[in-house]
Amino acid sequence: MTKPAAPRRYLPTSPFKAPVTPPPERFAVGDQVTHDTYGCGRVIGIEDEVAALVDFGSVRERILSPYTKMSKL
Question: What is the residue-level pLDDT of the chain in tens, covering all 73 positions?
Fold first, then answer.
């Protein structure tokens, strides 16, 4: 099995702009969300911007920040 490629290091002397990572999306209790794996659900809890507890109907999942597979509806 191969390891995933590490992100390239930004050099301060580079003529190109530094890569910018967008801040993670913020969710609030009651937000309706969609997840790539679990489908549609509703946020039922937030853990200090570290994780969101989401009820997807048949399952409750703790989704960790930066919530790459989850978005608001």
Answer: 566 677 777 788 888 887 777 777 899 999 999 999 999 999 999 998 899 999 999 999 999 988 889 999 9
Please tell me the pTM assigned to this model: 0.69
Domain ranges of the chain: 32-72
Structural contact between residues 66 and 26, judged by C-beta atoms closer than 8 angstroms: no
Neighbours of 41 (CB within 10 A): 24
Which residue shows structure tokens 């009651």?
A: 30
- Report CA-CA distances (Å) from 7 to 19, 26, 41: 10, 24, 32
Closest CA to 63 of 50, 72, 73: 50
In three-state secondary structure terms, 32 is strand
